[in-house]
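Hey team,

Filing this mostly as a record. A colleague (T.K.) asked me to run one chain through the structure pipeline before their review meeting, and I want the input and output archived in the tracker in case anyone asks later how it was produced. No errors, nothing strange. Just documentation.

Input sequence:
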Amino acid sequence: MGPTRRDALKGLGLTLGAATLGCGGAATGGEPDGANPDAANPDAANPDAAIDAPPDAAIDAASPDALLAELDTFIVVMMENRSFDHYLGALRLREGRTDVDGLRGDETNPSPSGATVGIHLLENFTPDDPPHGWDACHRQWNEGRNDGFVREHAGDSQAEVMGYHVREQLPITYALADAGATCDRWFASVMGPTWPNRFYLHGATSNGNQGNTPAFSFRSIFDQLDDAGVSHKNYFHDVAWATGGYFKLSGNAPIEDFFDDAAAGRLPRFSLIDPQFFGSGANDDHPDHDVRLGQALLAAVVNAVGASPHWERCLIVVTYDEHGGFYDHVAPPVTIDQRAEFRQLGFRVPSVVLGPTVRRGQVVSTTFEHTSVIATLARRFGLPALNGRAAATADLSACLDPARYGQPLPPPVLPPVPMTAAARAKAVAATPDDSHPELAAALDAMDLPPHLDRRRDAGAVTAAFLRCAAAVGAITEG
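Output structure:
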């Protein structure tokens, strides 16, 4: 039997990792972010030690506790501003997946002039940014009619919000859907913009914050993991969102470290990966950023974990913070929250769960939202519920297949993302943009050291990521 793809990727990673600056050290040569992470997280030095007690013999083998007990490495990638129908609705419309609650072909929205705008294939990879603030989202929702998307997006590009992408345009997203459990009822936590939704991923609340403004005295899942001695890192490209969101200054690490840590088998129990938010190399999928850069990020993360010692006991979650103003046909349900105005969930977002024991190629229609990540970590590591919302939210055990225990799946084989020399040059040019003005303002007000705010070195950060992506076979010359 010849070498496997995993063996080849390991070899490629070792060869290129040693030869290229950026997959063996920070792109800017920044100092560490404070204390020794192993001191703050005693579990980090040996991720397979402790917290691994087998489930009680009386627990059913298919119970959530037993299913999650087999996993010890959790990786979450949260991208930006796309709806489920916009990205994965074509699984049903174009590929005949009747098990997916996707597009059917007759979905429309009225324009401000009264004309009818139907769904259509979107050829533009860098669409204009539709409205997606608190008020705009609620008008798009319109008490569950979901008919306000086009009306909210004024101008010549308003029809783009009814556009959808297909496999040929998003090869990695669709390959992940083939290889993982596709969650067709994963809703944004809040019917509002980025920050409240990311707050719920981090802490199961936004402390009443409806807009993109910082939160004070914010208790996060990272605080809970610290209390329990469970290791964690927030890997970032240019900045960690939480640094601006609630002044999280410790436990952060540059994205290059993620690839080094994965290859060395030293990923923490919980890894949160922030994409690059700013500039021409931004790979967060936020309009008008080029979605092909986002495809490269997803492929790089999954390939790195798949080629690592962590694959056999990992769970990878790919999700989006909110719908970004793009159409989705499913009216979101309500949930439990201490604040009445936050009981209404936001629109569906593209979400896939991957790993060696997931329901590969299947659809999971359990109602999830971003707090499901917190619920999963709480169940796996025996953490108390952060609040009533966290206690009431479904964890991700429904995505796991009991039949796979003892017969784990191999890592998915993903097509490399073609990237021309011109595309790489454009990405590393570090041309500024204004897609995240509130985050920029929050960071500017903090006078952060260079190792926590790498926006000034955006070109070097992008170049380092692209080297790492090439090292794990995620991109190729196009």
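Quick notes for T.K.: The first helix runs from residue 5 to 19. The chain has one domain: 5-85+163-477.
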